[in-house]
Automatic annotation (TrEMBL):
Belongs to the aldo/keto reductase family. The keyword Zinc-finger does not apply. InterPro entries: AKR, NAD(P)_OxRdtase_dom_sf, NADP_OxRdtase_dom. Keywords: NADP, Oxidoreductase. Gene3D superfamilies: NADP-dependent oxidoreductase domain. This is Aldo-keto reductase-like protein. Residues 82-268 form the NADP-dependent oxidoreductase domain. It comes from Periconia macrospinosa. GO terms for molecular function: oxidoreductase activity, acting on the CH-OH group of donors, NAD or NADP as acceptor.
Amino acid sequence: MYFQEGLTLEFVHLEGLSMKYSGIAIARFSHSVTVRISRIPAYCIRTSPAHSSNRSMSSSATSRLLTADSDDWKPAFIYGTAWKKERTAELVKLAIQSGFREVDTAAQPRHYQEHLVGDALRDVYAESLVTREKMYLQTKYTTPAGQDPKNMPYDASAPLEDQIRTSVASSLKNLRPAQDSEEDSYIDCLLLHSPLQTVEQTLQAWAILESYVPKKIRSLGISNVSLPVLKAIHENSSIKPAVVQNRFYPQTRYDAPLRAFCGQHHISYQSFWTLTGNPHLLQSDPVSQLSHAVQVSRSVALYALVMDQGIVVLNGTTSAAHMEEDVSGIRKVRDWAQGHEKDWDGISRGFSNIIQSTHF
């Protein structure tokens, strides 16, 4: 993994991670501080600017786009598995074959088929397409309010702790790396699918999840969260949030204050509804300029500009052609940006101005 000049870095649990600067290896960590973390995606490395910058929202995704060597770099995509139904296993395999190495799911049979995600993963491991250590897997605990009452992964009448522990156990079983290797199962990040009814209940749920870190769960996150609730979790937890996953759309001003908080506290911000919620961005001048300059689709251009804001993008396409186009297209943008840094910087600044000046 590579990092641009001007970033200070805080590292946690780094067994097997190499650092390079300007292509020269400067450090390799042969053991971890507390526990072995087999893989840390670039966007989960904690980064903070060493000095002020006009582009305050840009962070680790920028370095991924512009400075990482081709052999190590991956687009900041997570494959989203919601609403895939019986096609879930097929589509997860296609995504991995197309170059995705991060997968998002949930213990919520109403919208996700977590067990089929696991089936697909075990298939690609058995076929030696990728190893578990090269994958990043995140899933979620969903409250009873978000579940189908007729098909739940736990007893809705049980105490909260029992609900969470039963849900986590089912996720560990579903996502186990081999049919008979449940003990080896772990989750890279477990998210609360939403805050609970009160901040106190949310903190209680968070504390229960903390008991799994770092062995069975490597990090924690939350989805559909407001800034006040995120601040409460950050201020009152032992294990700080590593991931926030929210809708990225103008009705929330693109979460500008919340993303600023994430940047200040080393929290990876993941976006969903990136295309669906932003038809106007697809028609914006920066997206049009980048699409024309690089000869990529407007969707790819928008993805690249969002990633440049330090955002990890959930991509749930069901088209094999679009999977390949998205991964190869982001690579194409990166290659172009490295050779046209002035043009890229102008387009990127224009896009940043649009999403930071949105008011409702």
